[in-house]
Amino acid sequence: MKSIAFGQYYPAESPLHRLDPRVKIILTILYIVCSFMCKNVLSYALLLISAIALVMLGRIPLRIVLKGLKAVLFVLGFTAALNIFWTAGEQLLFEWKFIKIYVEGIYAAVFIMIRITALIIGTSMLMTYTTTPIALTNAIEDLLSPLKKLHVPVHSFAMMMTIALRFIPTLTEETDRIMTAQKARGADFTSGSLVARAKALIPVLIPLFVSAFNRAGDLATAMECRCYNGGEGRTRMTVRKLRFADIIPLFLILLFGAGLVALNILKIGYTM
Known about the structure:
With 272 residues, the protein is mainly alpha-helical. The protein has helices at 15-18, 21-35, 41-58, 62-69, 73-86, 103-128, 133-143, 154-184, 194-200, 202-225, 244-266; strands at 92-96, 99-102. A two-stranded antiparallel ribbon has the order 1-2.
Protein backbone atom coordinates (compact mmCIF):
# COMPACT_ATOMS: atom_id res chain seq x y z
CA MET A 1 0.00 0.00 0.00
CA LYS A 2 2.82 2.41 0.76
CA SER A 3 4.28 1.84 -2.70
CA ILE A 4 1.49 3.69 -4.49
CA ALA A 5 3.08 6.87 -5.81
CA PHE A 6 0.08 8.55 -7.42
CA GLY A 7 -0.36 12.08 -6.14
CA GLN A 8 3.11 12.34 -4.62
CA TYR A 9 5.18 15.32 -5.69
CA TYR A 10 8.98 14.97 -5.66
CA PRO A 11 10.76 18.34 -5.44
CA ALA A 12 13.75 18.61 -7.73
CA GLU A 13 15.37 20.89 -10.31
CA SER A 14 14.80 19.44 -13.75
CA PRO A 15 13.47 20.36 -17.21
CA LEU A 16 10.21 18.54 -16.45
CA HIS A 17 9.72 20.47 -13.20
CA ARG A 18 10.19 23.77 -15.05
CA LEU A 19 7.78 22.85 -17.82
CA ASP A 20 4.41 24.60 -17.92
CA PRO A 21 1.76 22.38 -16.19
CA ARG A 22 -0.73 23.01 -19.01
CA VAL A 23 1.76 21.65 -21.50
CA LYS A 24 2.43 18.65 -19.27
CA ILE A 25 -1.25 17.74 -19.20
CA ILE A 26 -1.40 17.87 -23.00
CA LEU A 27 1.82 15.86 -23.23
CA THR A 28 0.37 13.25 -20.88
CA ILE A 29 -2.72 12.82 -23.04
CA LEU A 30 -0.63 12.58 -26.21
CA TYR A 31 1.78 10.12 -24.55
CA ILE A 32 -1.13 7.85 -23.61
CA VAL A 33 -2.37 7.98 -27.20
CA CYS A 34 1.14 7.20 -28.49
CA SER A 35 1.44 4.18 -26.19
CA PHE A 36 -1.58 2.60 -27.87
CA MET A 37 -0.13 3.20 -31.32
CA CYS A 38 2.64 0.64 -30.82
CA LYS A 39 2.27 -2.45 -32.99
CA ASN A 40 5.64 -4.19 -33.32
CA VAL A 41 8.92 -4.85 -31.52
CA LEU A 42 10.65 -1.65 -32.63
CA SER A 43 7.77 0.62 -31.64
CA TYR A 44 7.53 -0.96 -28.18
CA ALA A 45 11.29 -0.62 -27.79
CA LEU A 46 10.99 3.08 -28.62
CA LEU A 47 8.17 3.40 -26.08
CA LEU A 48 10.33 1.84 -23.37
CA ILE A 49 13.24 4.13 -24.28
CA SER A 50 10.94 7.15 -24.00
CA ALA A 51 9.91 6.13 -20.48
CA ILE A 52 13.57 5.83 -19.45
CA ALA A 53 14.30 9.22 -21.03
CA LEU A 54 11.48 10.80 -19.00
CA VAL A 55 12.96 9.40 -15.79
CA MET A 56 16.33 10.91 -16.69
CA LEU A 57 14.78 14.27 -17.60
CA GLY A 58 12.77 14.38 -14.38
CA ARG A 59 15.84 13.55 -12.28
CA ILE A 60 13.75 11.35 -9.99
CA PRO A 61 15.72 8.62 -8.17
CA LEU A 62 15.23 5.27 -9.85
CA ARG A 63 14.39 3.58 -6.55
CA ILE A 64 11.37 5.86 -6.12
CA VAL A 65 10.14 5.13 -9.64
CA LEU A 66 10.57 1.38 -9.15
CA LYS A 67 8.87 1.58 -5.76
CA GLY A 68 5.86 3.13 -7.47
CA LEU A 69 5.71 0.16 -9.84
CA LYS A 70 5.48 -2.35 -6.98
CA ALA A 71 1.79 -1.52 -6.55
CA VAL A 72 0.96 -2.77 -10.06
CA LEU A 73 3.09 -5.94 -10.11
CA PHE A 74 -0.03 -8.05 -9.62
CA VAL A 75 -1.76 -6.31 -12.54
CA LEU A 76 1.32 -6.85 -14.71
CA GLY A 77 1.54 -10.52 -13.82
CA PHE A 78 -2.19 -11.12 -14.21
CA THR A 79 -2.43 -9.47 -17.64
CA ALA A 80 0.74 -11.24 -18.80
CA ALA A 81 -0.67 -14.61 -17.73
CA LEU A 82 -3.94 -13.93 -19.55
CA ASN A 83 -2.11 -13.09 -22.76
CA ILE A 84 0.22 -16.10 -22.51
CA PHE A 85 -2.50 -18.70 -21.94
CA TRP A 86 -5.36 -17.17 -23.92
CA THR A 87 -3.68 -15.76 -27.03
CA ALA A 88 -3.82 -18.20 -29.92
CA GLY A 89 -1.47 -18.08 -32.87
CA GLU A 90 0.28 -20.06 -35.53
CA GLN A 91 3.60 -20.91 -33.82
CA LEU A 92 2.94 -23.41 -31.03
CA LEU A 93 5.64 -23.24 -28.35
CA PHE A 94 4.35 -25.56 -25.61
CA GLU A 95 1.41 -27.93 -25.25
CA TRP A 96 0.29 -30.01 -22.29
CA LYS A 97 -3.25 -31.38 -22.16
CA PHE A 98 -5.52 -28.36 -22.62
CA ILE A 99 -2.74 -25.82 -22.03
CA LYS A 100 -1.28 -24.32 -25.20
CA ILE A 101 1.30 -21.54 -25.29
CA TYR A 102 2.03 -19.80 -28.56
CA VAL A 103 4.90 -17.53 -29.50
CA GLU A 104 2.31 -14.83 -30.25
CA GLY A 105 1.11 -15.10 -26.66
CA ILE A 106 4.62 -14.51 -25.32
CA TYR A 107 4.98 -11.43 -27.51
CA ALA A 108 1.57 -10.13 -26.44
CA ALA A 109 2.43 -10.59 -22.76
CA VAL A 110 5.75 -8.75 -23.10
CA PHE A 111 4.12 -5.96 -25.10
CA ILE A 112 1.31 -5.39 -22.59
CA MET A 113 3.81 -5.31 -19.71
CA ILE A 114 5.91 -2.71 -21.53
CA ARG A 115 2.82 -0.65 -22.31
CA ILE A 116 1.51 -0.61 -18.73
CA THR A 117 4.97 0.13 -17.32
CA ALA A 118 5.56 2.96 -19.78
CA LEU A 119 2.10 4.41 -19.09
CA ILE A 120 2.65 4.49 -15.34
CA ILE A 121 6.17 5.89 -15.57
CA GLY A 122 5.30 8.41 -18.28
CA THR A 123 2.16 9.79 -16.65
CA SER A 124 3.83 9.91 -13.23
CA MET A 125 6.88 11.74 -14.55
CA LEU A 126 4.83 14.26 -16.52
CA MET A 127 2.17 14.84 -13.88
CA THR A 128 2.37 13.85 -10.24
CA TYR A 129 6.13 13.55 -9.65
CA THR A 130 6.98 16.90 -11.25
CA THR A 131 3.83 19.00 -10.73
CA THR A 132 2.55 20.41 -7.45
CA PRO A 133 -1.19 20.03 -6.67
CA ILE A 134 -1.74 23.80 -6.86
CA ALA A 135 -0.06 24.04 -10.27
CA LEU A 136 -2.07 21.06 -11.47
CA THR A 137 -5.32 22.67 -10.33
CA ASN A 138 -4.52 25.92 -12.12
CA ALA A 139 -3.50 24.06 -15.29
CA ILE A 140 -6.71 22.02 -15.41
CA GLU A 141 -8.76 25.15 -14.84
CA ASP A 142 -6.94 27.02 -17.62
CA LEU A 143 -7.42 24.19 -20.11
CA LEU A 144 -11.12 23.89 -19.29
CA SER A 145 -11.71 27.64 -19.13
CA PRO A 146 -13.70 27.70 -22.44
CA LEU A 147 -16.40 25.69 -20.65
CA LYS A 148 -17.02 28.63 -18.32
CA LYS A 149 -19.08 30.22 -21.09
CA LEU A 150 -21.45 27.26 -20.72
CA HIS A 151 -21.68 27.97 -16.94
CA VAL A 152 -19.69 24.86 -16.09
CA PRO A 153 -18.02 25.17 -12.62
CA VAL A 154 -14.54 24.60 -14.01
CA HIS A 155 -12.67 25.72 -10.90
CA SER A 156 -14.67 23.43 -8.60
CA PHE A 157 -14.16 20.54 -11.02
CA ALA A 158 -10.40 21.10 -11.15
CA MET A 159 -10.23 21.46 -7.37
CA MET A 160 -12.10 18.20 -6.83
CA MET A 161 -9.83 16.31 -9.23
CA THR A 162 -6.69 17.65 -7.57
CA ILE A 163 -7.91 16.94 -4.04
CA ALA A 164 -8.87 13.39 -5.04
CA LEU A 165 -5.42 12.86 -6.58
CA ARG A 166 -3.70 14.34 -3.55
CA PHE A 167 -5.56 12.16 -1.04
CA ILE A 168 -4.76 8.84 -2.74
CA PRO A 169 -1.45 8.36 -0.86
CA THR A 170 -3.09 9.60 2.34
CA LEU A 171 -5.89 7.04 2.12
CA THR A 172 -3.45 4.24 1.26
CA GLU A 173 -1.42 5.06 4.37
CA GLU A 174 -4.65 5.10 6.40
CA THR A 175 -5.61 1.71 4.95
CA ASP A 176 -2.23 0.26 5.88
CA ARG A 177 -2.57 1.67 9.41
CA ILE A 178 -6.05 0.17 9.85
CA MET A 179 -4.99 -3.23 8.51
CA THR A 180 -1.99 -3.27 10.86
CA ALA A 181 -4.28 -2.49 13.80
CA GLN A 182 -6.71 -5.23 12.75
CA LYS A 183 -3.87 -7.75 12.41
CA ALA A 184 -2.74 -6.87 15.94
CA ARG A 185 -6.26 -7.82 17.07
CA GLY A 186 -6.05 -11.21 15.35
CA ALA A 187 -7.51 -10.44 11.92
CA ASP A 188 -6.34 -12.62 9.04
CA PHE A 189 -6.41 -11.20 5.49
CA THR A 190 -4.29 -13.84 3.72
CA SER A 191 -5.86 -17.24 4.42
CA GLY A 192 -9.21 -18.78 3.56
CA SER A 193 -11.33 -18.66 0.44
CA LEU A 194 -11.91 -15.58 -1.69
CA VAL A 195 -15.26 -14.95 0.02
CA ALA A 196 -13.64 -15.24 3.46
CA ARG A 197 -10.94 -12.76 2.50
CA ALA A 198 -13.58 -10.34 1.20
CA LYS A 199 -15.52 -10.59 4.46
CA ALA A 200 -12.30 -10.00 6.41
CA LEU A 201 -11.92 -6.63 4.65
CA ILE A 202 -15.23 -5.31 6.02
CA PRO A 203 -13.65 -4.25 9.36
CA VAL A 204 -11.11 -2.31 7.25
CA LEU A 205 -13.53 -0.61 4.87
CA ILE A 206 -15.89 0.78 7.52
CA PRO A 207 -13.26 2.73 9.53
CA LEU A 208 -11.61 3.75 6.24
CA PHE A 209 -14.85 5.34 5.00
CA VAL A 210 -15.38 7.01 8.38
CA SER A 211 -11.84 8.40 8.29
CA ALA A 212 -12.29 9.61 4.70
CA PHE A 213 -15.51 11.46 5.53
CA ASN A 214 -13.90 12.97 8.63
CA ARG A 215 -10.96 14.21 6.56
CA ALA A 216 -13.36 15.64 4.00
CA GLY A 217 -15.26 17.47 6.73
CA ASP A 218 -12.07 18.85 8.26
CA LEU A 219 -10.87 20.02 4.84
CA ALA A 220 -14.21 21.72 4.12
CA THR A 221 -14.11 23.47 7.49
CA ALA A 222 -10.54 24.64 6.90
CA MET A 223 -11.46 26.02 3.47
CA GLU A 224 -14.48 27.85 4.89
CA CYS A 225 -12.34 29.34 7.69
CA ARG A 226 -10.05 30.72 5.01
CA CYS A 227 -13.07 32.28 3.23
CA TYR A 228 -12.79 30.05 0.20
CA ASN A 229 -15.69 30.72 -2.16
CA GLY A 230 -14.76 29.02 -5.43
CA GLY A 231 -13.17 30.38 -8.56
CA GLU A 232 -15.27 33.50 -9.04
CA GLY A 233 -13.19 36.64 -8.51
CA ARG A 234 -10.11 34.72 -7.43
CA THR A 235 -6.66 35.86 -8.56
CA ARG A 236 -3.31 34.07 -8.60
CA MET A 237 -0.03 35.08 -7.09
CA THR A 238 1.84 33.68 -10.12
CA VAL A 239 0.44 33.97 -13.63
CA ARG A 240 2.13 31.53 -15.99
CA LYS A 241 2.95 32.43 -19.56
CA LEU A 242 3.94 30.01 -22.29
CA ARG A 243 7.60 30.15 -23.25
CA PHE A 244 9.29 28.87 -26.35
CA ALA A 245 10.86 26.13 -24.22
CA ASP A 246 7.33 24.95 -23.35
CA ILE A 247 6.36 24.60 -27.02
CA ILE A 248 9.33 22.45 -28.01
CA PRO A 249 8.10 19.32 -26.11
CA LEU A 250 4.82 19.45 -28.05
CA PHE A 251 6.74 19.15 -31.32
CA LEU A 252 8.86 16.37 -29.81
CA ILE A 253 5.82 14.32 -28.76
CA LEU A 254 4.33 14.73 -32.25
CA LEU A 255 7.65 13.60 -33.71
CA PHE A 256 7.60 10.67 -31.30
CA GLY A 257 4.14 9.67 -32.50
CA ALA A 258 5.23 9.98 -36.11
CA GLY A 259 8.22 7.76 -35.35
CA LEU A 260 5.94 5.09 -33.89
CA VAL A 261 3.74 5.17 -36.98
CA ALA A 262 6.83 4.86 -39.21
CA LEU A 263 8.10 1.87 -37.23
CA ASN A 264 4.68 0.23 -37.47
CA ILE A 265 4.77 0.63 -41.25
CA LEU A 266 8.15 -1.13 -41.41
CA LYS A 267 6.63 -4.25 -39.82
CA ILE A 268 9.98 -5.53 -38.53
CA GLY A 269 9.68 -8.46 -36.16
CA TYR A 270 6.40 -9.61 -34.60
CA THR A 271 3.48 -7.31 -35.34
CA MET A 272 0.22 -7.30 -33.41
